Amino acid sequence: MRESKKSELFGFGKGWGTILYCLLMFWFYAGMVNDSSNIVAPAVAERLGVPVGNVLNMGTVAAMVGVVFFFIMGAVNRKIGPRITSFLCLILAGAGYFGMGRAGSLLQYGTALCICTIGAMSAGYIAGGSLVAQWFPKKKGL
Q1: How far apart, in whole angstroms, are the C-alpha atoms of residue 46 and residue 42?
Q2: H or E element: which one contains 24?
Q3: What is the per-residue pLDDT across 58-80, written as a single tens digit (0 to 9) for each?
Q4: C-alpha angle with apex 132: 130 to 96, nearest 5 degrees?
Q5: What pLDDT, in 10s, does the model give residues 15-56?
Q6: How far apart are CA 33 and CA 45, in angstroms?
Q7: DSSP state of 104
């Protein structure tokens, strides 16, 4: 009895790597896009001398742009595969986050936030979902 419970927990094999990788992608998305508005936006507003609300409004724009790019990134994911897509999207998200911190204007901040949102959301939702879909059907009965 004890052996079967152990095999159920560890029976995922390499799937644990996929699960942890997807967890990290969602963590990056939440930290870089959603939660960063609590820390990055007020700091950028102070540095640019604009109201915080103006900076926070860029989040709405970035979310709309991100949804449009979901379709594009879905096509890219089909063409090049989820591993390469997630790699490229995470690089894109990092570059966008770097740009958010270095923005010299509200337009630059908004553009960088859009890039970060596209990269982080696509890595987590588009590529991450494909990675799980490729792995999970191989483990029947789990």
Answers
A1: 6
A2: helix 15-29
A3: 999 999 999 999 899 999 999 99
A4: 60
A5: 778 888 888 888 888 888 888 888 889 999 999 999 999 999
A6: 16
A7: S
